[in-house]
Amino acid sequence: MQRNQSSSFYLGVDGGGSKCKAVVVNHNLEILGSAIAGPANPCVDYQLAIDSITESCGRALAEAGLSKEQHRIELGLALAGVNFDHVFQRVNEWSHPFHSMRLITDWHAACLGAHEGRDGAVIIVGTGSCGYVCVNGQSKSFGGHGFPVGDKGSGAWLGLQAMKAALLAKDGMGPPTLMKELLCTSLSCKPEDLAIRMVGASSAQYAQLAKTVFAANKQGDVQAAGILNEAIDYIEAMAHSILEYGPPRLSLVGGIAPFLMPLLNHRLREHISRPLANPEMGAVYSLLKNTKT
Amino acid sequence: MQRNQSSSFYLGVDGGGSKCKAVVVNHNLEILGSAIAGPANPCVDYQLAIDSITESCGRALAEAGLSKEQHRIELGLALAGVNFDHVFQRVNEWSHPFHSMRLITDWHAACLGAHEGRDGAVIIVGTGSCGYVCVNGQSKSFGGHGFPVGDKGSGAWLGLQAMKAALLAKDGMGPPTLMKELLCTSLSCKPEDLAIRMVGASSAQYAQLAKTVFAANKQGDVQAAGILNEAIDYIEAMAHSILEYGPPRLSLVGGIAPFLMPLLNHRLREHISRPLANPEMGAVYSLLKNTKT
User: Fold this and answer.
1) Which of B143, B145, B173 comes nearest A237 by C-beta?
2) Which of A227, B10, B84, B161 could make an SS bond with A161 (beta carbons 3.0 to 4.6 A apart)?
């Protein structure tokens, strides 16, 4: 891959609902500094997102011994929520303090990272879920419509399904499930207080409960197995849709990925490759010449 | 039913996520005034709830030509959300301006209203859904855990399912459905903008979309029929659980009830009776002597 051999330094940022990660590299892609700051989803809180981005960038640059006044810093900024036009526009108009800025979706950055800037596809299963494929300069996304309307198979979705099953069991209107006891342990409450504990809960809070589905499934819980089957069906359908576009590589990334991976059909697993780099490096790749985006 | 023949006037209030209705009656239960004000769900906005209650009461009393300074006004206050202990406690500590106040859940008021203060049961299917049975001084609720974790079969749940099906169809990951076109018409947007239109939407906003499921079902849409079957299964299971408690009467109430009623199993429909009065009258019944609550 040909790179801009100028005196630029590249700052890659990946921001989402729970945290914002920054990395700073030189033109040889050697990592000079990195940092993690708080939430950076501009859909949820625009100013907090800008503050978290600023903080993570400042700390990564400080670790690298660089300053935006003395060095030419190019920012590759990947954010959740900028798939929505009006959110993209607002962030893109941010009067950032760097030499330049390129704004992309967090999906795109995950894809660029997983395949070191080359063509490929990703299925991201973290707090939310979505698919993204980028081949021959064409890209397409699948799902990723947010919680609770989309994001099937994601941590938030798994947590919500666990809670639904537990409440049906508590009411005697659904089969018993170990998830009820596991959720009560996880939330330190009695079954009758489960619902109140989740009033107005965020997707990140539901995602915290996803582990109860995997734990109950391991102990043979039929309801948990049913939830995981539905998740797997969705992720597999997404993978098949993505593979029709012929991406050279496909990676499964995100916090829930390691738990779902062993449950996928073994023939599909053969099509899935290890991600080569993380999304903040993907944001760096978006800045480099000859990177197909 | 024996009534308190004092000089009291009874103010019945039923408050929920979208509106607050008040009625004022004399000791013969003759309606002297009524009013409707804005949202009154103390879980969502405590101060707004208090303001809406105050406004609806003030206007109903004014219509009746009564004043809380010159007349003995007893308030029966039925509110959504007070099934949660801490919410009940907070509202119950409100320094209301009336002679006395009795606070009950909106479910309880719907049940008291539907059976004129006598034993019975209700299934409420409006923005949310839940069941409530009151027999021989014992009561039990079913479901009603709130959106999105509970409230299956409700308007909000139907709207959410419609949106999920439409987004799967849009992504080519689910079968086509008329609901996609109907939702686009309803929200005046293109399919690719459906998700953004519902970011952070309230249960009331989702409930506005429930009509698309019934409309699509009428036109033979298989996906819509599947959603309605799931709703009906849940409501029927709830009805059977409730009937085990032997309530003398069972009513189906709420904005979605008339649409679901014709879809219920005809043998179950025979067990369902017309509600005799509305929930704000139910709140009045909660104040009367010899009412089993």
Assistant:
1) B173
2) A227
